[in-house]
Amino acid sequence: PDLFTAPDYYNIDDLLNEEHKMVREATRSWVKKELSPIIEDAAQKAEFPKDLLNGLAEIGAFGPYIPADYGGAGLDQISYGLMMQEIERGDSGIRSTASVQSSLVMYPIFAYGSEEQKKKLLPKLASGEMIGCFGLTEPDFGSNPGGMLTNFKDKGDHYLLNGAKLWISNAPFADIAIVWAKNEEGRIHGLIVERGMEGFSTPETHNKWSLRASATGELIFNDVKIPKKNLLPNKNGLGAPLGCLDSARYGIAWGVIGAAMDCYDTALRYAKERIQFGKPIAVKQLQQKKLSEMITEITKAQLLAWRLGTLKNEGKATSAQISMAKRNNVDMALKIARESRQILGAMGITGEYSIMRHMMNLESVVTYEGTHDIHLLITGLDITGHSAF
Ligand code: TGC
Ligand code: FAD
């Protein structure tokens, strides 16, 4: 049975192979059965629905593109993207959990870790037995992470870590944190910090109006002793965390298409059913303008994501290309959420429909993983050769 008629105005399905479609259907089916029925309540209560973790692991959302040898799903980048699209059709906060676990925790261990770290941690992260978080942002260094103050000193048989990270997704319950900190020479390295280490705490950040179904918190390091084997040995410098962001930003470029599709689909159905002045509001040109522009923008975003995915599969996607897609697609989704909300009139502000929740969520998505402004400046740098940060 058709679970959802996904907008596909340009027959983009013809560009997908059987595996892509299978992954998409399996994810869609899980979202419909497990995520959609509980998400509104979780968001209203501002609680992360931990019961979804096992299901996310089962559908392969923890490490979709990590090779099967390490417990990942071994899929290509298009399948990864479609999976993020379907999860974010449900909720951006749950997609965030999958993004962080896959691209910001498993990816750095896979790409920069030792064989021992990979063998020990990746299978547990893939199965959801262990959950991770990623600490880059600090209270005084958000868009400019290169200025970070968190640091570690070499104490012979261990490192001593001090500092603080803020706005960290999954921090309140994560078992491990990939933490970016400077050594005595000011060079950035990744460290694996484990819950329970003395001097390490993870207070939760409350009162968010956005990503309410995702837990956000701080990471505080007060003379935390880190065993030397917990340093990621194979890459350092700011390029190491930024390399992880490339992978997460790519997933977001697909994910937000799902949120936009859900808003568009809801608004289209509502417009056909809602009668005002004796006729469905869908007959009115003003409503048709909104809906027509939405499907146009969704179609453009799908093509951008698909082409970026093929480039990524070939190992040819540049960071600047990823920035363009993240920025364009998040902006597209946020605008569609706002317009869809208006089509529903007063009903649009209630929890009976998903639109307002998507809209509030997307206010985080447009800020995290590089703000709308920062991604524009990355394009600016790429085309002019001049950094305007
Ligand atoms: P800059 O001098 O340009 O670069 C420093 C070094 O990094 C290299 N590089 C990259 N490497 C890999 N991938 C990328 N995307 C890269 N971009 C730059 C660069 O080549 C250089 O290497 P080297 O060897 O020459 O040292 O650095 P800058 O200090 O001028 O900053 C550049 C800027 C502003 C683009 C960067 O800092 C940036 O992207 N800022 C935004 C910060 C951000 O995105 N934070 C995200 C935090 S994590 C998060 O939000 C998770 S939300 C999770 C969820 O719930 O889904
Ligand atoms: P700032 O950098 O202070 O920016 C404020 C404003 O100034 C923005 O509009 C920005 O675009 C603008 N601005 C900044 N620099 C420039 C410039 N050079 N030119 C023009 N304009 C500029 N971080 C993590 O490390 N891990 C996580 O898991 C994580 N999860 C998050 C979850 C949520 C819900 C949120 C909201 C954030 C999360 N973040 C995470 C942090 C996120 O990455 C940062 O919020 C983001 O990078 C922006 O930093 P900032 O909030 O300090 O804003």
TrEMBL record:
Residues 236-378 form the Acyl-CoA dehydrogenase/oxidase C-terminal domain. Keywords: FAD, Flavoprotein, Oxidoreductase, Transit peptide. It comes from the Bacteria. One of its GO terms (biological process) is fatty-acyl-CoA biosynthetic process. Residues 17-129 form the Acyl-CoA dehydrogenase/oxidase N-terminal domain. GO terms for molecular function: fatty-acyl-CoA binding; flavin adenine dinucleotide binding; glutaryl-CoA dehydrogenase activity. SUPFAM superfamilies: Acyl-CoA dehydrogenase C-terminal domain-like (SSF47203), Acyl-CoA dehydrogenase NM domain-like (SSF56645). Residues 133-224 form the Acyl-CoA oxidase/dehydrogenase middle domain. Belongs to the acyl-CoA dehydrogenase family. PANTHER family: GLUTARYL-COA DEHYDROGENASE, MITOCHONDRIAL (PTHR42807:SF1). This is Glutaryl-CoA dehydrogenase. It comes from Zunongwangia mangrovi. The lineage of its organism: Bacteria, Pseudomonadati, Bacteroidota, Flavobacteriia, Flavobacteriales.
